[in-house]
Design goal:
CATH architecture of the largest domain: 3-Layer(aba) Sandwich
Helix content: 40-55%
Structural class: alpha/beta
CATH class of the largest domain: Alpha Beta
CATH topology of the largest domain: Rossmann fold
Radius of gyration: 25 Å
Oligomer: single chain
Largest sheet: 5 strands, parallel
Distance between the termini: 67 Å
Strand content: 5-15%
Strand order of the largest sheet: 2-1-3-4-5
Order of helices and strands: HHHHEHHEHEHEEHEEHEHEHEHEHE
CATH superfamily of the largest domain: Response regulator
Number of domains: 3
Length: 331
């Protein structure tokens, strides 16, 4: 018999028991006598029944037992980017502790992104930072399910979990700019188009909220120290990888020779060191093992803990996000 057509009622008739007894056999087996449970399972095997439909079960119970992670990157990014991996490890910790499933929902800027969110069989959403105006944000909020986003942007119905990036950027820029003659910023992408290139004093009102906050903090520090932001070169990468940092610095050397590099990630900082060596001062962000191994200052913040905080909100365990701490780590 086709297993897709077999119902719980048919199994009950085959086993000679009530429909509720079949339900208990699969969902609360401790409530069913062992002999009865065996009879039900044998009937199910004869008919090719594989258990209750998970979607139907979730509709009846009001819970799916799953959290959805909306990732505005290709799925491989979740495993290749060290900080994204730490964030997802934090989400996974909550799922393990509360026996929840984890559903990855890719969001790549296509029209199908909204449908994917609306059709997700999950109890709540964790959203990896994205750009302002991303339609998946409204789609997530419209579900009415608990939701949290790492890094922003802020929209009604979704809690933002993020460190104070602007203040942290201001602090590390102040630390790095003393006696700097030719500083340069090595930046995350400005928008979803991920246009790489060298920009002079770019507008700090950019689409990615994390990039925007850090550029604003750097700008404040530059201007407080008597520099004009319009004179500051900002090398923007398409993706914050070590290879991209290396390429950006290689391209810059045709036009500019920096003595200080302020990078928005440790991966980018390592790429700059690969090209420039120890002839310049370099700083990073995230205080990963790279920062201590290569010996450059970085901003310490825990993406793992931010993942935990987001998942706790999405799972309905907590309601309000407490801003995670950060500090300047000197190596």
């Amino acid at each position: 018999m086709n297993s897709q057509r077999v119902t719980m009622r048919q199994v009950a008739a085959e086993a000679g028991v009530a429909v509720m007894t079949v339900s208990y056999t699969y969902q609360q087996p401790e409530r069913v006598a062992e002999t009865t449970r065996t009879k039900v399972l044998e009937a199910a095997e004869r008919l090719g029944y594989r258990g209750p439909n998970p979607v139907a079960r979730s509709l009846r119970s009001g819970s799916t037992g799953n959290l959805g992670v909306v990732l505005g990157e290709h799925l491989t990014y979740a495993f290749e980017d060290p900080q994204a991996a730490k964030f997802l490890a934090g989400v996974s910790r909550v799922c393990v502790e509360h026996r929840l499933g984890l559903v990855l929902i890719p969001s790549t800027g296509e029209a199908s992104d909204v449908d994917r969110v609306q059709e997700a069989t999950v109890d709540g959403f964790v959203v990896w930072t994205t750009v302002r105006g991303d339609p998946v944000l409204d789609a997530v909020a419209a579900t009415g399910r608990p939701a949290a986003i790492q890094g922003g942007p802020a929209v009604p119905g979704i809690q933002v979990v993020t460190a104070d990036d602007q203040t942290a950027a201001h602090a590390i820029a102040h630390h790095m700019l003393e006696d700097a003659r030719n500083p340069i910023v090595l930046s995350h992408p400005l928008g979803r188009a991920r246009q790489a290139g060298l920009f002079w004093g770019p507008n700090t009102d950019v689409a990615f909220p994390v990039t925007r906050a850090r550029l604003t903090g750097y700008k404040q520090a530059y201007e407080e120290l008597g520099h004009s932001w319009s004179d500051v070169p900002v090398a923007v990468v398409a993706r914050h990888t070590r290879d991209n940092g290396r390429q950006a610095m290689t391209d810059v050397l045709d036009k500019f020779r920096p003595d200080v590099v302020i990078a928005m990630s440790d991966q980018l900082a390592a790429g700059a060191i690969d090209v420039l060596g120890r002839t310049v001062r370099v700083s990073g962000w995230d205080d990963s093992e790279l920062a201590s191994t290569l010996g450059f200052p970085s901003i310490r913040q825990s993406l793992f803990e931010q993942g935990v905080a987001c998942a706790n909100i999405a799972a309905g365990i907590t309601r309000v996000a407490i801003p995670p701490p950060w500090r300047l780590a000197l190596h």
